Amino acid sequence: MSVESGLSRRGRIWFEALTGGGAANLSSLKSLCVADAALRGETARFIAVVPDAQNRFPRARGGEVGLDEGWALAQHVRATIAEANDGARRPIIAIVDVSSQAYGRREELLGIHLACAAAADAYASARLAGHPVIALLVGKAMSGAFLAHGYQANRILALDSPEVMVQAMGKQAAARVTRSSVEEMEKLGERIAPVAYDIRSYASLGLLHELIEGIDADAPGRIDVDRVRAELVDAITDARAGASDLAGRLSSPAARKTRAASIEVRRRLAEQWHSVEQGRAAEQRDVRS
Amino acid sequence: MNTDAAAQAGYRRFLERRSFIEMNARERVRAVLDPGTYREMLGPFDRIKSPWLPLQGIVAQADDGVVLARGTLQAKPALIAAIESAYQGGSMGEVSGAKIAGALELALEDCEQGRLIFPVLLFETGGVRLQEANLGLAAIAEIHAAIIALRRYVPVVGVIAGMVGCFGGMSLAAALCTHLIVTPQARLGMNGPEVIEQEAGIEELDAADRGLIWSLIGGERRYAEGFADDLLEDDADAIAAAIRKAVSADPASAAKPARSMQVERYVELLRKLGPTP
Fold first, then answer.
1. CB–CB of A56 and B39 under 8 A?
2. Is CATH 3.10.250.10 the classification given to domain B13-271?
3. Do B70 and A273 touch (CB under 8 A)?
């Protein structure tokens, strides 16, 4: 089962399945798996954050992105960019199964916000440098942890499985902050897609490149792994053919429907931006004269 | 005699000081830009509201709590985005998030075409608006992407004045800025105290312990630990002057590595904490 003593093994399962298990872990942290493995004729870097019951930061023992994990992610992603001096921009695959960022007093004091920003910065920098960055959601992709590990990808893929979810805050905490109950939150999610926790609701927002159906996410067989590999290869090809920004997240039919306001804001903003520009030029002449 | 004169001058300065914290988002933007150059975009009369709040029985405000304006800073083209903390705690919904991300994307286009425009973000936010949850989170990822891309051309300046502070995914946005200005009334943290208490238990953090919380994430502490570049009193003129100074730095200084790029330095600092920090 994916959940043993409450901790998800999905990240490790898919990391081993996709890298063949035998690849050397390049990370000195037990909570981070980093390896290079072949993917359709080229070498890709695979990265997963996994639980480590002995993590020196107690609040980061359950597969959370903590201080060490955030900075180590930044280090390994930036190393991949640095190694690409010969011109070959290797794909980077973020295998995402992160229950949250680490919540704790030490974490705040030592700047967990900066550690997570550093990871996001590294992934975005890799994308801008021409590396195809693909996020593969195999478990939870929660909040700040997903912002740090995966949300800066060119393309986001997800397994269609009940344990795969994307959300901004855990159910209990969200209920407390919005002064409602978990039951009320769940009911609301049935009506309002962005507040739902399940991956199918998330898919309706148009942010996914592909929802991969019919995969055994807990015990993938060879056919499952081959299918996911093929989807990764497609996503890499698509990313290389597209722009290095995140504009693709607004172009799918689902996005045009559910994120219509995001698109409308940009359209009207662009109109006003350029008319303001002309107005400002005239104004500047007035000020100077 | 001299001391008296100095004391009196200090007293006068204190009385004449204009509080930045007490200003709403629109007033803050006006206080920062060169006089007479304020041009708001997607203002309240454009009536682009949250499509999600009315579905949940909440009245949507006509600007969704974000003020965007173009103008100049010492005659340099500037874009200011300010978050209104009085509306939904300054939270990022689909529209408010898209306003900031979209404006930064347009600034990036201009920069790419050689027309430098200097972005300034006035943070005052609890992070994602939970009523719009995943669409707020997605917009925040787009804000991060735009800041990181823009920083290659111009410094991106952030201000956290207070009293709400800057939390959640937006704390990452603050951390990505080239130059971050805080006041002693600012708080900068990834996880709000209530959320930590909920997730980790009251033994980890008592959200009601105000003194402890300010000592962890208050502006003075953040500045002392090197997580912010300027610590300023709550003075609109001083804040405006610090923004001008940060912007007037040679554009080449945008190449100066932002804090979030100084990976080896922070990895080494963390390593020194030892096995049981």
1. no
2. no
3. yes
Out of A104, A174, A280, closest to residue B77 by CB = A280
Alpha helices in A29-95 (DSSP H): 67-82
Instruction: Determine if the pTM surpasses 0.90.
Output: yes
Q: For chain B, say whether A99 makes contact (Cβ under 8 Å).
A: no
pLDDT digits (tens, 9 = 90+) for B105-119: 999 999 999 999 999
Q: Look at residues B95, B42, B20 and name the one whose alpha carbon lies nearest to residue B64.
A: B95
Domain A3-248 sits in CATH at 3.90.226.10
The domain segmentation of chain B, as residue ranges, is: 13-271
Inter-residue contact A23 to A44 (CB < 8 Å): no
CA distances from A203 to A169, A198, A210, A211 (A): 18, 9, 8, 7
Is A190 at the interface with chain B, CB within 8 A? no
Residue A3 has pLDDT above 60, yes or no: no
Q: Give the start-to-end residue ranges of the domains of chain A.
A: 3-248, 259-289
**A contact test, residue of B150, B191, B221 with most A CBs within 10 A:** B191
The H or E element containing residue B91 is: none
Chain B hits for A280, Cβ within 8 Å:
37, 39, 70-72, 77
Contact B136, B94 (CB under 8 A): yes
Task: Find residues 204-233 of chain A whose CB sits inside 8 Å of chain B.
Answer: 205, 207
Query: How far out from the chain centre does Cα A130 lie?
Result: 17
- A24 burial class (0-12, 13-18, 19+ CB within 10 angstroms)? exposed
